[in-house]
Amino acid sequence: MNGSVRVGRVLGVPLRMHWSVPVLIVLLAYGLGHETLPAWTPGRTGAVYALASVVGAVLLMGSLLLHEAAHAVAARRRGVSVEDVTLWALGGMTKMGRPRTAGVAFWVAVIGPLTSLVIGGVTVGAGIGVRALTGWGVPTAVLIWLGWANLLLGVFNLLPAAPLDGGRVVQAVIWWRTGDRERAERAAGRSGQILGVVLIAVGWISFLRGNNGGLWLSLIGLFMVIIANAERQRAGVNTALRGVRVADAMSAPVAAGAEWLTVERFIDEVAAHARHSVMPLLDFEGRPSGVVQLRALASVPGEAREERRVRDVAIPLARCTVAEPDELLSEVLERARPGGGALPVLVVDHGQLEGIVTMHDVNRLFQLHGLGITTAPPESTRPLWAVAFVMGGGVRDGRRRVPTRRGAGRRPRRSCRVGCPPAAASPSRP
After folding, report:
1. pTM of this prediction?
2. Among the options 35, 68, 331, 334, which is catalytic?
């Protein structure tokens, strides 16, 4: 997420924090210290309320982190790739791949709300126990507030609408019953759109009646509508790509260059003649070693371009998406790194570069079939929204022909156009 920075790891998963998190903590602490605690435990000093409210707000953010960490750990243990967990103003978000089975999807979805419910129950019980044993009013109030907040988070997230966890649960159940994953995703996305519109309306009416928290509720609804619509679109993309192989979408031949060229020479001999904004690199044996983007080349100062090698500003092959021509395009996009970007895809056959699949190629494939879809599947995210209720008190890709039938995209292998290593310039085989 833009505006977030990495702050560490939680249970082996990278943790990122958005700049809005400190703002959220301040707002939560203000509401707790100026409204809730004075009403529940009157007669204390302002310093006591301030300290207790900050502790309560930080503990609530910690419980949100545990909620998201539960998703991440459950996903990893069941073979689903996880990139990171991000905390932001509307809760948390876990970037992960798509579960392979309905059972895995169900467990990964339900574990988060269950974690919040357990935290809520334990915290409320702890508050009651502290009250009975010590009679301390402020700690009791903070613990009970924290417990009820987590119970509310757990219940709200179980509502059967994407992108809430309850929507993921319903999606997994429909997928298990029908065997149609895309149908399940469309149903969950539709329910999310409906619930989002309801939240927008209820929040706006509440604001008109004098409750400022209604604006926050409307904002939640707006984000739900946007993400639910994106998920329905992703389901449409997956349906459209059913049966489409990588060779059907790839551009071939593709301009590629040797990784040891200087940036200046690569720009003159390769980039100047390329019709993509991303170009593959080849090693001494003519095998793909990564990709380089035009913007990365442009970022190199002019005086350094004669000395710096293009491989120094390239994305190595280990971070690229690589596929064989006969693989299903949908499966390739699903297995791609969840945050590293599924596209472009380097198409490699027996170690030799066959072609490349870019965003432009996929968009044109959709347009060719009259699907009207112009975006790639978004990253799989798992946002947590209900925290707001606690506050309520260069160069474009070139045009290529896209084949319309399976296997039509297979072309004879050609050597790269310019800047090739000697091994890559051997005669093409049919």
Report:
1. 0.68
2. 68
